[in-house]
Structures are given as structure tokens and as C-alpha cells.
Write a structure and sequence with these properties.
CATH superfamily of one domain: Beta Polymerase, domain 2
CATH architecture of one domain: 2-Layer Sandwich
Structural class: alpha+beta
Order of helices and strands: HHEHEHEEEHHEHH
Shape: elongated
Helix content: 55-70%
Number of strands: 6
CATH topology of one domain: Beta Polymerase, domain 2
Mean pLDDT: 78
Strand content: 15-25%
Distance between the termini: 144 Å
Largest sheet: 6 strands, mixed
Radius of gyration: 46 Å
Length: 213
């Protein structure tokens, strides 16, 4: 299987990407602290239980083993805010185990590593050097970026074709303004004139009646 081919077939969740970033950072510490024969074991899902990776490295003495383990714990805490679930073997320094649940760090003295031979016990695991692990991550990132870029023109074409297939919408005519009904003007003046005329006509008749008496 080519480098990165496994990652092409996998859709990594954000949690899985975070785990790989942590393993990468821990492996970088092993390289900085002169750890020997550092290996990353990509564990088989059916055989691994809860963990996805084992990070295994060797030290020439107990002091170097403790220094590697302490620096891994410090850097992951400082850069990622992640703490180990448990730490074992730091007092003796022959086999220090840092359990981060999704991956486990094993720092051995060289003779102890040869005695326990953890790589042989995990035959189904895929061993990777830190360089190979980094190459897989970079290749997977490039492949993902390329896939996103190829999908973008396809989506743009589909959107343009969809918009072209729609019939042109007619421009809406402005709504006619409702005509306000004009109220008829009050004919107050003619009524007043008629009332005044009646009064005038009534006065002479009253005088005539008086004279007739």
C-alpha cells in the first residue's frame, strides 16, 4: 500500500484528525530528545480496543526516558490543552506509559523494549516512522484540497444550469392606486337662504292680520 493510500479511503472525523496531530507532536518530541527507533503503530480497529495508535521509542538510560516522557506531557498540555488519562512507570524509568486513550506512548529502555517486543505482539498493526506518518498526513491533506477544488467548478456549473433553465419572471406592474371617493360638498348656503325667505314671507301676513282686526 502506497504512502497516504489508506488515508484516501478514510473519511477522518475532527476527533481523528486531532488524534493524529497529537501523535505527530509526540513523535516530534521523541526525535528532539534523541529517542531511538521511534515507531508509530497504526492499530487494527478490530484488535486495538479503544486506542488508535501506539507511539514507541527507546532511551539509553532512565534519565533520558523520563525526560522524553515529561517533554511529551508538557508539550501536549501547552500546545493542545490535553492531559494524559494515566501515567505509569515514571519512578523507575524502564518503561514509561502515557495513556491518552486514543493513543498510548511507550518510552522503553532499549533492553526492555527488546525483551517485551511490543511490535511483535501487535502483528496486525501497521508500523510507520515519524517521517512516513507526516508524509501520509500531508498527502491526505493535499488530496482533500484537490477534491474540494474539483467539486467547486461542478457545483458552479450545476447552479448556472439551474438558473438558466428557470423561465424569466415577468416584471410586476405597479399596483393601481385606489381612487378615493370625493365626498359631496355640503350645500349649507342654499338651505339658509330658503329659511330666510320663508321668514320674510311670514312677516307681512302677520301684519295683514293685525290690520284686518
Amino acid at each position: 500500500m502506497r504512502v497516504g493510500e489508506l488515508f484516501y479511503r478514510m473519511r477522518l472525523s475532527p476527533a481523528q484528525k486531532q488524534t493524529r496531530a497529537l501523535v505527530q507532536a509526540a513523535a516530534a518530541v521523541c526525535e528532539d530528545k534523541k529517542g531511538l527507533n521511534t515507531r508509530i503503530l497504526a492499530l487494527d480497529a478490530a484488535d486495538s480496543g479503544l486506542s488508535d495508535f501506539f507511539l514507541v521509542t527507546s532511551a539509553t538510560n532512565e534519565r533520558q526516558a523520563v525526560a522524553i516522557a515529561d517533554e511529551i506531557e508538557l508539550r501536549l498540555k501547552r500546545d493542545f490543552g490535553v492531559y494524559p488519562n494515566s501515567v505509569e512507570g515514571r519512578r523507575h524509568g524502564e518503561w514509561i506509559l502515557l495513556d491518552y486513550v486514543d493513543f498510548v506512548v511507550h518510552v522503553f529502555l532499549s533492553e526492555r523494549r527488546a525483551f517485551y517486543d511490543i511490535e511483535r505482539l501487535r502483528k496486525s498493526a501497521r508500523p510507520l516512522t515519524p517521517a512516513e506518518f507526516d508524509a501520509e498526513l500531508k498527502t491526505a491533506l493535499k488530496e482533500k484540497t484537490r477534491a474540494v477544488r474539483t467539486r467547486a467548478p461542478i457545483k458552479a456549473r450545476a447552479a448556472s444550469a439551474k438558473s438558466a433553465s428557470r423561465p424569466a419572471t415577468r416584471a410586476k406592474k405597479p399596483a393601481k392606486r385606489a381612487k378615493t371617493a370625493k365626498k359631496p360638498a355640503k350645500k349649507a348656503a342654499p338651505r339658509r337662504k330658503a329659511a330666510a325667505a320663508k321668514k320674510k314671507s311670514a312677516r307681512p301676513s302677520a301684519k295683514k292680520t293685525r290690520r284686518s282686526r
